[in-house]
Amino acid sequence: METIVAAIISAVGGLVAGILLTWLGTRLRAPNPCLAFVFQSTHAITARALGRLRRRIQITYEGTPVKSLHVCSAAFRNTGNQILTGVRLSFVVPGQGKLFRPELDVPQAVQLGKHRLRPVGDPKSFQCDLDHVLPRDRFSITFLAADTDPGEVAISVEKPPCRLKQVGRLETPAEQVREAFRTDPARFSLQLLLPLLAAAGAAAAGVLTALLGE
Hints:
- By secondary structure, this protein is an alpha+beta fold.
- It is built from 3 helices and 11 strands, in the order αβββββββββββαα.
- It is elongated.
- The mean pLDDT is 75.
């Protein structure tokens, strides 16, 4: 009887493991075009910050009057499993907002091919065209946003069709672990060993309690 039960459990376990492995392999092979990005902004100057002085001081940028100015940065990474070709990113601000001086920053190890930033025709928007973005490649675009809340800047991918996902950080868990070890190996090792030592101590205490109880 026990042999039959063990055989049934083994067969069911093997079937479930096979289904999970097949599903995982299919997911890894399936096209998954995705760009992840982290958006950050910093106050440069605002009319409110000037207080009473704003009645005597006029804020302008390249001859254009503005009431507020923010330095914005959008860092992108291809987190999908395929090469993105002919990428076009669009940046648009609503209302009376304006976008100035977009700049593209590409790490030395990344080869994006041809790329360019171009205004659409008014200061409310601009586009970024990229020849290709390989998996795991990253780049960032910085620009100035005037007379608007930086959170209202709309970022979209016009082509090719792919998901655009805003995240807190671009590093994968494995990269976060490697960076933590590279930054401070001693602290990383201590943080890793302490839980293991605690678990080993708890296991030893349990075994000792069981032995004494006998």
